[in-house]
Design brief:
Layout (H helix, E strand, L loop, with lengths): L2 E6 L5 H13 L3 E6 L9 H8 L15 H8 L2 E7 L1 H9 L5 H8 L4 E5 L3 H5 L1 H12 L3 E2 L3 E4 L5 E5 L3 H14 L12 E7 L3 E2 L5 E2 L6 H12 L3 E7 L9 E6 L2 H12 L4 E4 L6 E3 L20 E3 L3 H8 L5 E8 L7 H12 L3 E6 L10 E8 L4 E8 H12 L5
Parallel strand pairs: 1-2, 1-3, 3-4, 4-5, 8-11, 8-13, 11-12, 13-16, 16-17
Antiparallel strand pairs: 6-7, 9-10, 14-15, 17-18, 18-19
The structure holds cytidine-5'-triphosphate (CTP).
Length: 403
């Protein structure tokens, strides 16, 4: 359990702070909400008090004997400001201390994450961009805002990332430190495949695999938070897309292949984390295969699917980095890493993320561990952790290889 300060400034998106608070407390954290006075125009203090179980004050004149304006920041493990308005970012960048939240920001020794939300013009204004640059230079994490529907009918960058994404990224910073959300993918175009393909047998049945897509979703979420422009090709992945990520949903290996080959033309980094079926039924029955009928099969003839990763490697543009994944188990012919090295050579990609999937590890589980092998002979071990922290480790291994 960590001690988190949730700063809330005065924008309409303040209502989402209640959901973020809920997500953080459900993860077992002790959360102290520090709204600005204007945030309370949008959400009442009682809501934050009830959901956090902690008192809520906005100014430095409450609890004076406790010296709250110093103590709250000093004792926190993490400060998350969501939403962070243009005004809050400006006051934080200027080092002001005119309410309890800005005073807390000045006394916090822990990582600070700002999740901006404002109208597009305000976000893009040079004053705001300068303030964001100042805060980042001082070590704060300022998440890129999501692009989408704003308060009115208009849309553009400036939307608050969804509470579930902010909660996941807050947990990542607690687990892996602020470097996990460095802005080192800013301006990079990233294409990621995730999930597992399904190869139809008849209108109701398919051959599939156990990939949940959670690692691919984590890669997309962390890349977007690190500033990348992300396209996710999602094969049968449940759940909403992470903020800032464009999703193309596919079903079969053939659909995934088309989406990846098209998307790769516009990408600086291509990551094949999807589990692509190596085989598909030779033919798809147009109607349901019924038992006892003349069409009842006694076996299913299979044909090979193309190897998408090998094709992407063959078609890659100059300077483009291609990252493969390998789910391996050790056997009589070699251990997990030996199989990984052989696969890296066979596929020809630049980096290969090797997962040990013995004993039901990894699939559908929230945690993971991996080794990133490089075609230059490098091996980077990523310690066991959440799929978001493994994703952050993978991006940190990728960045030095980018031109
Ligand atoms: N892959 C792919 N197209 C396929 C099969 C796999 O692009 N038809 C990609 C996966 O997305 C992954 C990598 O290749 O990035 C390795 O996948 P894996 O299933 O471990 O490898 P296979 O080629 O199936 O090798 P093997 O069955 O020999 O272990």
């Amino acid at each position: 359990m960590s001690s988190i300060v949730l700063g809330v400034s005065g924008g309409v998106a303040a209502y989402k702070a209640a959901l973020l608070l809920r997500a953080l407390t459900e993860s077992g954290h002790d959360v102290r909400v520090v709204p600005t006075p204007s945030a309370l125009h949008f959400v009442g203090a009682a809501t934050f008090e009830a959901l956090s179980g902690n008192p809520v004050t906005t100014d430095v004149w409450a609890d004076v004997p406790e010296v709250a304006h110093v103590r709250i920041g000093q004792t926190a493990d993490l400060v998350v400001v969501a939403p962070a308005t243009a005004d809050l970012l400006a006051r934080a960048a200027a080092g002001r201390a005119d309410d309890l939240l800005t005073a807390t920001l000045l006394t916090a020794h822990c990582p600070v994450v700002f999740a901006p939300a404002m109208h597009t013009e305000m976000w893009l204004h040079p004053a705001t961009q300068d303030n964001v640059a100042t805060l980042r230079r001082r070590g704060a994490i300022v998440l890129p805002p999501a692009v989408g529907r704003l308060t009115g009918p208009d849309s553009g960058p400036g939307r608050l990332p969804e509470p579930a994404d902010i909660a996941a990224l807050a947990q990542l910073v607690l687990d892996a430190g602020p470097a996990a959300l460095a802005q080192d993918l800013a301006g990079r175009r990233v294409l990621i495949s995730a999930g597992g393909t399904r190869e139809p047998l008849d209108p109701v049945r398919y051959l599939g695999n156990r990939s949940s897509g959670l690692q691919g979703l984590a890669l997309a979420r962390v890349a977007a938070a690190r500033g990348a422009d992300v396209v996710l090709v999602a094969a049968n992945v449940d759940g909403p897309a992470p903020f800032g990520v464009r999703v193309e949903r596919v079903g079969t290996a053939e659909e995934l292949r088309t989406a990846m080959r098209t998307g790769a033309r516009e990408a600086d980094v291509v990551v094949m984390s999807a589990a692509v079926a190596d085989f598909r039924p030779e033919s798809v029955a147009p109607t349901k295969l019924k038992k006892g009928s003349a069409a009842e099969p006694s076996s299913i003839p299979l044909v090979r699917n193309p190897d998408v990763l090998v094709e992407l490697v063959a078609e890659r543009s100059a300077g483009q980095l291609v990252v493969g994944f390998a789910a391996e188990t050790g056997d009589a012919e070699g251990d997990v890493l030996a199989h990984g090295r052989a696969k890296l050579a066979r596929k020809g990609c630049d980096l290969l993320v090797v997962n040990d999937v013995s004993d039901g590890r990894v699939f559908g589980r929230p945690d993971n561990a991996a080794v990133v092998l490089g075609s230059d002979g490098s091996a980077t071990e990523l310690p066991p952790g959440s799929k978001d922290s493994v994703a952050a480790g993978i991006w940190s291994a990728v960045v030095p290889h980018l031109g």
